[in-house]
Write a structure and sequence with these properties.
Largest sheet: 8 strands, mixed
Structural class: alpha/beta
Radius of gyration: 32 Å
Strand content: 15-25%
Helix content: 40-55%
Number of domains: 3
CATH architecture of the largest domain: Alpha-Beta Barrel
CATH superfamily of the largest domain: Phosphoenolpyruvate-binding domains
Oligomer: single chain
Number of strands: 22
CATH class of the largest domain: Alpha Beta
Length: 758
């Protein structure tokens, strides 16, 4: 049995002393391996560091040939050391030479050693190297020795992470921690940001677990909760989020959680059971997470993130670490990198220093993403592994347009993106200059360029983009970010804000379109569906739950008093659905009139053409509605039997194909014959080249993302519509086999010097 002087506690004490001394990196490493060997009565202690070329290089040793330092190398997966690095798991062997992975390195002389204990050097789950001890005698290292070695490896990981070992690398070599990494995630908010990594690490280690004065701890908790609630109130009063909208609703819900009596009661109970206030927060959060860990419900996961965020913020209040400290240490070009975040956490960072947000998790409707949009920063989510690969201060590029993340980018990549940012700024300036100009073609054809919206934060872009109105307001987004069904008064308030922001410009509201991939977590009305995209959703759901639709109709009618109201029904399959919906809205009109409410000056009811069955009912459809709008995303999906979320099918079928363009033309012709307006909303309208095709088919009103209006308007200004219409008629008559419509359109654009850049 080893002496007490050789215990793990003594080793850690000696390591702290070594780390505190002013030593050169190589000398510090040599001292560390020497100390470990002495403490563990090991004849050998060696440190291997992983390079960017997936090679483990010997950086320090006690017991092996000193001349092999920086010369002995093993590939990832080669030998015992390479196996540990590849698996990120320790190896404890009493007879290492007979292990199948054993590799003999003549320069080190390690063949004479039998016992072997190796642990990976890990940081945030990422392998940076391997730490090894060896003995000649056959022995099995104890658990305390393994634990001590793993703790030491953590210390070394910090040395590698802080860059202390970079001076020891040979010219032309880089440590693995320094290699450039490119990741592809999901684009949640467009834009490009160049800056430096700020790891969002709210985790705080609680060291004092047991209280000696219950009343004192309860008082500390009460004080910290008061400060927490005041800080949330302060967030809500900030100028950038003071106006109404989904992001504000998110924070209002967040404030509600901070006042949740159940949560506070559990905290107080834990304190009365003997824990400190900090330990009580840890315990309650841990218990809640354990209970909800098995749940897959996205709403519940979002709630867990909110409560985690509150817990971390409360811990910081208790330990005297406020947002001011965070802001002071932030670089001027910060890109926040996190696994997940609560909505309010992002607001702890000063907006003037933020250049972007990268998440390993999240969805486009996550609360933090909604707040990110309100702050107008590029956001990329689903960037798996970015937290473990990134270090504070690393250069980072976040491309919110394409969902790309470039960590420690090469100079040429950085230069290319810097140019992209400059080009984007110049283009945006050009588009701003076009904002107030009419959207008219080169030969004088007017085309209404409308914008799609769904969030109150989108509304300022109506004027900024120069849109002719809102061609599609996705009313379901209000439902998707709420904790419960929005009340009629809440809906009315949002709809009135939308109409006021639009002024004299038209607004088309789509009724609630939930189901499929648009889940309301608090709505439990449906069984799990095998194919939700073809299931109980949109108008099918709301007609089966008429209370939902009537409440929405009532809110819309009251909000639109004194002006025109345009309402559009999603995913209509047969004319009878429109008839039923019209009956419901007329009933609400009569009810409101009976009680003396001011009503809209006119009511126009339209339908979205998304389901192919409507294509065979076009004359009947046009007689039933006041207008139609083609939902190009869903219509194309159903026409081609293609799940648009399936990466294997992405790009397999082109919406600018002759068959799909013929379908669009048939709807236009039916609308013209019946004297009913036909618009199109969807991604097809958001690209200049496809918008050009739509104008050539005969569309005179299209709706798109706000960012697309500038590029499409610039394209339109150079477009001779008469010549284009002739080309489109010719292509529609020709065989669809091997017809490359985009190539023909690009050739046309080149011939007439038309800008088709986004």
């Amino acid at each position: 049995m080893r002496e007490i002087a050789g215990s793990p506690r003594i080793l850690l004490k000696r390591l702290r002393e070594i780390m505190a001394e002013a030593l050169e990196p190589q000398e510090r490493l040599d001292r560390i391996v020497r100390e470990i060997a002495a403490n563990m009565v090991a004849e050998v202690c060696s440190l291997y560091v992983l390079r960017a070329d997936a090679v483990l290089e010997l950086y320090a040793t006690e017991g092996l040939n000193p001349g092999s330092v920086h010369l002995a190398q093993l590939r990832l997966g080669q030998g015992l050391v390479g196996t540990i690095a590849a698996s990120a798991r320790p190896l404890n062997l009493s007879d290492a030479r007979n292990h199948p992975a054993f590799t003999y390195l003549p320069e080190t002389g390690e063949e004479i050693y039998n016992s072997f204990l190796g642990v990976p050097v890990l940081r945030a789950g990422r392998t940076l190297g391997v730490l090894v001890v060896q003995n000649k005698t056959n022995r099995h290292y104890g658990d305390d020795e393994a634990e001590a070695l793993e703790t030491t490896a953590m210390v070394i990981a910090e040395m590698i992470a802080t860059g202390d070992l970079r001076r020891l690398t040979r010219p032309g070599m880089e440590l693995d921690l320094s290699r450039p990494v490119s990741l592809t995630g999901a684009a949640f908010n467009d834009g490009v940001g160049l800056g430096h990594v700020v790891l969002h690490e709210p985790r705080i280690v609680v060291t004092e677990l047991f209280n000696e004065d219950v009343d004192q701890e309860l008082k500390r908790l009460e004080t910290a909760l008061g400060s927490l609630r005041l800080s949330i109130d302060d967030m809500l009063s900030r100028r950038e989020i003071a106006f109404e909208g989904e992001h504000r609703a998110v924070l209002e819900a967040y404030r509600m959680f901070a006042h949740d009596r159940g949560w506070v009661r559990r905290l107080e109970e834990a304190i009365r059971n003997g824990l400190t206030a900090e330990a009580a927060v840890e315990k309650v959060q841990s218990d809640m997470r354990a209970r909800m860990l098995h749940m897959t419900d996205p709403y519940l996961r979002e709630r867990m993130n909110d409560f985690d965020d509150l817990g971390y913020r409360l811990l910081r209040q208790l330990m005297g670490r406020g947002p001011e400290e965070i802001a002071a240490a932030l670089p001027k070009d910060a890109i926040i990198v996190a696994r997940s975040m609560g909505a309010a956490e992002l607001l702890d960072y000063p907006r003037d220093k933020l250049r972007g947000l990268v998440l390993e998790e999240g969805a486009v409707t996550s609360h933090v993403v909604i707040v990110g949009k309100a702050m107008d920063i590029p956001v990329v989510g689903q960037a798996k592994g970015v937290v473990s690969m990134a270090e504070n201060g690393d250069a980072l590029i976040v491309d919110g347009d394409d969902g790309k993340v470039h960590l420690r980018p090469q100079p040429d990549v950085e230069a290319a993106y810097a140019e992209k940012v400059r080009f984007r700024a110049k283009k945006q300036q050009l588009y701003r200059e076009l904002r107030d100009r009419p959207s008219v073609s080169k030969d004088g054809i007017a085309v209404e360029l409308m914008m799609n919206a769904g969030l109150a934060v989108d509304l300022p872009q109506l004027a900024e983009a120069g849109a002719a109105g809102i061609g599609l307001f996705r009313s379901e987004l209000q439902f998707m970010v709420a904790a419960t069904f929005p009340r009629a008064q809440e809906q009315e308030k949002l709809y009135r804000e939308v109409l006021e922001a639009a002024g004299s410009k038209p607004v088309t509201f789509r009724t609630i379109d939930i189901g499929g991939d648009k889940v309301l977590p608090y709505f439990r009305g449906a069984e799990k569906e095998e194919n939700p995209a073809l299931g109980w959703r949109a108008i099918r759901l709301t007609l089966d739950r008429p209370g939902l639709l009537r409440t929405q109709f009532r809110a819309l009618l009251k909000a639109a008093s004194g002006r025109e109201l345009r309402v559009m029904l999603p995913m209509v399959t047969e004319i009878g659905e429109i008839t039923k919906a019209r009956g419901l809205i007329e009933r609400e009109v009569q009810q409101l009139a009976r009680f003396g409410y001011a009503l809209p000056t006119s009511l126009k009811l339209g339908a979205m053409i998304e389901v192919p069955s409507l294509l065979f009912q076009l004359p009947e459809l046009m007689r039933t509605v006041d207008f139609v709008s083609i939902g190009s995303n869903d219509l194309f999906q159903f026409m081609t039997a293609t799940d648009r979320g399936n990466g294997l099918l992405a790009g397999r079928f082109d919406p600018l194909s002759v068959p799909f363009l013929r379908v669009l033309k048939s709807v236009l012709d039916a609308g013209r014959d019946a004297g009913k307006p036909v618009t199109l909303c969807g991604e097809l309208a958001s690209r200049p080249i496809s918008a050009m095709a739509l104008v050539g088919l005969g569309f005179r009103a299209i709706s798109m993302s706000p960012a697309a209006i500038g590029p499409v308007k610039a394209m339109l200004a150079d477009l001779p519509v008469g010549e284009l219409e002739g080309l489109m008629i010719q292509m529609l008559k020709e065989s669809a086999v091997d017809m490359d419509v985009p190539a023909r359109l690009r050739a046309f654009a080149d011939e007439f010097d038309i800008s088709c850049e986004t």
